[in-house]
Amino acid sequence: IVGLDELKSKEFRFFCTRRLSFAVKFKFIKFFFDGFINEENMFNLYDLKKLEENLNTFKIEGEKEMYIFRGNKRYIISSSIFFIIILFIALNSIYKIVSGAEKATLIKIILITVLLIYVLFAFTSLIRYKIFIKGKEIISGKLKINMDNIKSATVKIDKVKGNRYDRFLEIISDDSRMIKFRLNIENQLLFLKIIQNNIKERFSIKN
Description:
Blueprint (H helix, E strand, L loop, with lengths): L3 H5 L1 H36 L2 H10 L8 E5 L2 H27 L6 H23 L1 E5 L2 E4 L2 E4 L3 E12 L2 E10 L4 E5 L5 H12 L3 E3 L2
Parallel strand pairs: 5-8
Antiparallel strand pairs: 1-2, 2-3, 3-4, 5-6, 6-7
């Protein structure tokens, strides 16, 4: 239990203020970029009728044995800016500690370490993210699903997290598994057309 004298101490008040400031900065930046990504999407995101029209007229030219789909440029750029700002906050705090402008405390060191690990892991995952279609198999990481075993595949709008929404392909397999692929990928029409061509009437778009 913290005593009254300790609560009044300058050091304790500084510690609380810095800790709160750090958390507020992180939440504010996250809220800003969640809104930014949603605003970028909102004019086309919900227009699934237009997507259906585009898909109906889309033709696959020069079919391949394997296709690779990566995150689209807009998503990678917007996410990268978020990671860069978080990285700047962490490095700025390290600089202040090294220069003596701020006192190094255990909680600061833990928070900075967690932020650096988060940025490294998240950015690496973002760059390495791929969906493969090889023959009749959809492959993402350790996940493999044969299109012959798909009961239904539906394009719909769903929540990512917080106030963010995006297009998803929701797949229900013959063994009743639900698998969701977020459609923040390059060549979205090609990806959907390949699946549509393979599963025919089991594919749908939820308008």
